[in-house]
Amino acid sequence: MELSDILAKESVVACAKIASKRQLLQKLAEKAAEISGAKASDIFEILMNREKLGSTGLGNGIAIPHGKLPNLSGVTAVFARLDHAIEFEAVDDQPVDLVMLLLAPEGSGADHLKALARVARLLRTESIVTQLRESRDPAHMFDVLTRPVESHAAA
To answer: If DSSP codes are grouped into helix, strand and coil, which group holds residue 147?
Structure first.
């Protein structure tokens, strides 16, 4: 699974005025609703419930909030780069500034797990993280995120 299969250009956002985890999840839910046709309130509730189980902040300023949604047509992603890192209760207690939201249809176990693994692997690549943090342009961030894996080594 390539990220371009689940991430659309319009799903990459630069967020200047996000001040809290709750506000971020609300913004991501609204963007995901635009793309998926699901209700933002349903997405937000699923994300908040998932965070109650344990933070999806992986460390190194990265979080991958995720959940499963009924009647979703396929795995859907939204990426946000924050201008100012926020408290996210990450495993390393560091604030978060790079966030990839993943939503999957209920019953999509393998696809959901493949997407999570793919995103986690991608966001552990130092050169990619650096490029994302240096960019303010959503189109450039989309290109960085969806570039074929082999070409990241050369970037």
So the answer is: coil
**Band of residue 78 on the pLDDT scale cut at 50, 70, 90:** very high
Confidence of residue 135 (pLDDT cuts 50, 70, 90): very high
Please give the sequence-ordered ranges of beta strands (E in DSSP) within 76-117, or none if there are none: 76-86, 96-105
Catalytic amino acids? 66
- CA distance to 18, 49, 75, 107, per residue, from 116 (Å): 24, 18, 10, 15
Angle at 81 between CA 109 and CA 144, to 5 degrees: 75
Phi, psi of 99 (to 5 degrees): -135, 130
What pTM does this model have?
0.91
Q: Which residues on adjacent β-strands are paired with residue 15? A: 82
Q: How far apart are CA 67 and CA 44, in angstroms?
A: 10
**For the chain, what's the residue count?**
155
Question: Token pair of 78, please?
Answer: 């939204």
Q: How many angstroms separate the CA atoms of 79 and 1, rounded?
A: 17
Which domains are assigned to the chain? 3-145 (3.40.930.10)
Q: What is the pLDDT of residue 41?
A: 96
Q: Within a 10 A sphere around the Cβ of 53, how many other Cβ atoms? A: 7
